[in-house]
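Following up on my earlier thread - several people asked me to post the actual chain instead of describing it. Fair enough. Here it is, all 416 residues.
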Amino acid sequence: MLLFKRPKGTSDIYGTNMLRTKRVEGILKELMLNWGYSEIRTPIFESTELFDRSVGDTSDIVQKEMYTFRDKGGRSLTLRPEGTAPVVRAYLENSLTNYGKPMRLFYLGPMFRYEKPQAGRMRQFQQFGIELIGSSSPLAEVEVFQILMDMLDRLNVKDWQFHINTVGCQNCRDEYIKALKEYYRPLLPNLCSDCQRRFETNVLRLLDCKNPQCAPYKKDAPHFIDHVCEDCKRHFDAVTSSLDALHIPYVIDHYLVRGLDYYTRTAFEVKYREGSQDALLGGGRYDLLIEQFGGNPTPAIGFAVSIERLLLASKDLDTPSEHPLVYVVTFDKSRLQGAELAFELRRAGIPTVTDVMGRNLSNQMKEANRLGVCYAIIIGEEELKVNEFTVKDMKTGEQHLVNREDIREYILSHSC
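Reply from S.P.:
Thanks for posting it. Predicted structure:
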């Protein structure tokens, strides 16, 4: 009888899924190396106030989705629901400001949100993200968008679209919020209960509602671009003209606001053609967050994506096998010699397994076939006497006697 099951919204990763996960993560790390980004790792839990102040205490993440607890010292801690706020905290606390600007960072690790589990959305998920800190130029947006294109191309993701919008700044957002409230106020009785609550707490989120009951009213809502200040308008025009000049395709999405309060000016998503979760990834500028955390005014931009969604979108990506290269077949009198040879081969970088079950020859060969090894090295009594072992090519069936001292070089010189 099964005594325990994994918690809802989590997953066990093994076998082919693990191979695909490692493949995607490897591509992402190689991508960041090519773009000059350094990896940063922050704690899995942080002060709850860090997320209350950055993500926004009226956001769905803070209101509904955070895993918050008190430790034995009575401190309120939260399993991180997103990566930007911890990176900004680390950037200031560790004086990374002294390393100059721009600062290019990326992260990869587990995040936690209490959400309704579905394809591509888990309660514990792996998130990859980048942060480009220090530039207010539209060239920062260009670099981030180029990274996204490079990433999606390397992962063989097809049929995606950039969606971008401007969400203004502290000088002009209030004007848009006022216009949005004036539009939605007479419609309140027709909206879902969440939107009726958000109308008072964070009216921007009405544009992000996925409830079919509310969707028809969004199309006539006022556009952010018509209410932003001249500085924000110029910045957004410079971003779109740069994308045009570089032939980077995009869609201006007037209803894109994102779910985090720290975004300013440019906000964006990559939409994917398949699945209910069509927003593959998202990001934007957060030019005020570093100052809000006690640093000097510092512009920044970034994006984040869950590995789970990337796996769904990159299902056509080739995944190399991770089969052992060699299986050392032994008998009663050659078990220890086989273990010694297998150890030597592993030390030489040759993936090797050997029998630890006491199986006979036939069952060991079946196991070698099951594992998909390239070569079986058979150490029988006669082979031990002459110090020559039989090396069998498991694909062709060809066999060769190879001197014990030459085994390593023989395997290294023959491709699988």
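Residues 326-413 form a domain with the Rossmann fold fold (CATH 3.40.50.800). That should answer part of your original question.
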